Amino acid sequence: MGDERIRSMASSAPAPELGPTMPVDPPPLAEARVAIVTTAALFSPGGAPVRGGDPGFTVLDDGADLRLGHESMNFDRSGWTIDPNVVFPRERLHEMANDGVIGSVARRHLSFAGNQQPSTLSAIAIDSGPAAAALLREDGVNVVVLTPI
């Protein structure tokens, strides 16, 4: 799919209205547990990436070896190839934790597929999004770094 066609489709896609968000009161960053949520469809070897149009997510163990599952032919993979932290800044978070900038790095992170259709956005908002948030809360996560790919 060419860039012009993607721009044309994206410019006419309706933006979902998600309603008001609940206020949060996170701890100071130096005490916070931080997780990464990405839309790069990352997955561990032997697993399978979440595919475009699937509102689910993959749970990534913090130390796991990861693969990029983004399907778009227009996606430039060179940054990921050179330094995976461009997409999934796990090493930077560990450095920040070691330096006392953040409290700790979560033991699990999450990956969604970013190439969603408007029809699947409501499933993410109603089902998999809240399920992902519950999993992160269960892990004591206070702050999320979102890497939208």
Strand content is 5-15%
Which word captures the global form? globular
Number of strands: 5
Q: Summarize the biggest pleated sheet.
A: 5 strands, mixed
Outline the low-pLDDT stretches: none
The SSE order reads HEEHHEEHE
Count up the domains: 1
Question: Describe it for me?
Answer:
Helix content is 30%, strand content 14%. The protein has 149 residues and is an alpha/beta fold. Strands 1, 2, 3, 4 and 5 form a five-stranded mixed sheet that branches. The chain has one domain.
Explain the layout of strands and helices.
Elements: H1 3-12, E1 33-38, E2 58-61, H2 78-82, H3 90-98, E3 104-105, E4 108-111, H4 118-138, E5 143-147
Parallel strand pairs: 1-3, 1-4, 1-5
Antiparallel strand pairs: 2-4
Short overview:
By secondary structure, this protein is an alpha/beta fold.
Name the features:
alpha/beta, 4 helices, 5 strands, 14% strand
